[in-house]
Design a protein that fits this description.
Elements lengths: L1 E6 L1 H6 L1 H8 L2 H9 L2 E3 L13 E3 L5 E7 L2 E6 L2 E12 L2 E6 L10 H6 L1
Parallel strand pairs: 1-7
Antiparallel strand pairs: 1-2, 3-4, 4-5, 5-6, 6-7
């Protein structure tokens, strides 16, 4: 299975100035997209709780926090709130987030073992 944390339209509008520089750097753009994906694991909302850490397809940690405001996912210095959960697809699940996780770091060693 696969799990995708998909930013909503407002999230992309909020970073439109950053997207220009990312679009000219295919490696960085690929990494940012990969840091929104968990490959090989389908993570449903009941598995998302405070302190959960899961490795993205780029080998970076996705760290989850929950509080009275909701559930959040962080990668690098970016954090987004999970605003819609458990949208089922043929091979996994999508969760909508209200921000883009602008983490351009990757760890291919961790990615291959994830």
């Amino acid at each position: 299975g696969i799990t995708v944390f998909a930013p909503d339209n407002t999230a992309f509008q909020a970073i439109s100035s950053s997207l220009g520089s990312l679009s000219s750097n295919v490696t960085a753009l690929t990494t940012v997209i990969g840091n929104h994906i968990i490959n090989g694991t389908t993570v449903y909302s009941p598995s998302i709780f405070n302190g959960t850490v899961i490795t993205s397809s780029q080998g970076e940690n996705l760290t989850f926090t929950t509080n009275s405001s909701g559930a959040f996912v962080s990668s690098g210095q970016s954090t987004a709130q999970i605003v819609q959960t458990d949208i089922l697809t043929e091979n996994g699940v999508v969760h909508v987030i209200n921000g883009v996780l602008l983490n351009t770091d990757s760890d291919q060693g961790a990615a291959s073992s994830a």
